Amino acid sequence: MRYLFLVLVLIPFFVFPTLAQSQSLRELQFACAVFPPFNTDNKEEPGITQEVLAAALKTVNRSVKFHTFPFKRALEITKYGKVDALCGCSYTAERENSFHYSDMLGILHQGIFVSSNYSGKKIRTLKDLGDIQVGTVRGYATERELEKLGMKVMSFVDSKQLALMLLTGRIDAIYAYKNVILYELKKLNSKTKFAYYNLSSQPYYTCISKAITNPYALLRDLNQGLRVVRSNGIYQGIWNKYSSQE
């Protein structure tokens, strides 16, 4: 009887860790907002963020499925734990109530691209452009920023059209995210070099929902994987893949 009791006591110690481990290795679900080249809806080239995350999680034997939503929707469903994490997000103090921030995924650079015939002074602020007409994407915060300063603005439907207007000389300067324009220029097979003046830089992260079971385990695994892909060159290789010039 004593031996039977000992066996019954020990069984949970052998069974439950296995069950817990099985749960922890389930396929992860991440929500992403389309924002080329960081997140795209192209399965062949899913974007910098998705490729980095998939590679990082693979090093710790985790698989992930990415789902595309408008940003506000992606943020909401992640907040309430409908998915495990939001692919990419910037830091705000308010979001700390709902999310754990991963280690930094990268930096978003925002600035001015100018054509080869630009002869003005070095650009340190938007006002340094003077009365030059500046292109940007319609509806973006960059458009509102330019308009607030009273600058001459020409707005375009998307980043692809914006890059094309710069490439064809239809406009002398554009205000945009650096890697977004580099990606569009690469897709246009452009070999033309443009001067770029960086005006602001902001780190971005993966936001892990605090509403899921054991978010700390996912945070630990993801950060470990990110360290691995940074050290073995995979991380930089992915970034290089989506850029045409630096």
Task: Note the topology.
Elements: H1 2-24, E1 28-32, H2 48-58, E2 64-68, H3 71-79, E3 85-90, E4 99-101, E5 106-114, E6 134-137, H4 141-148, E7 153-156, H5 159-167, E8 173-177, H6 178-187, E9 195-209, H7 215-231, H8 234-241
Parallel strand pairs: 1-2, 1-3, 6-7, 6-8
Antiparallel strand pairs: 3-9, 4-9, 5-8, 5-9
Helix pairs in contact: 2-7, 2-8, 5-6
Feature tags:
246 residues, alpha/beta, D-Maltodextrin-Binding Protein, domain 2, 2 domains, nine-stranded mixed beta sheet, disordered N terminus
Number of separate structural domains:
2
- Determine the structural class based on helices, strands and strand pairing: alpha/beta
Shape: elongated
- Could you tell me the CATH topology label of the largest domain: D-Maltodextrin-Binding Protein, domain 2
CATH architectural category of the largest domain: 3-Layer(aba) Sandwich
Give your account of this protein's structure.
It contains eight helices and nine strands. It has helices spanning 2-24, 48-58, 71-79, 141-148, 159-167, 178-187, 215-231, 234-241, and strands at 28-32, 64-68, 85-90, 99-101, 106-114, 134-137, 153-156, 173-177, 195-209. Strands 1, 2, 3, 4, 5, 6, 7, 8 and 9 form a nine-stranded mixed β-sheet that branches. Helix 5 (159-167) crosses helix 6 (178-187). The longest helix is centred in the N-terminal third of the chain and has 23 residues, at 2-24. The radius of gyration is 23 Å and the shape is elongated. Mean pLDDT is 87; it is low at 1-23.
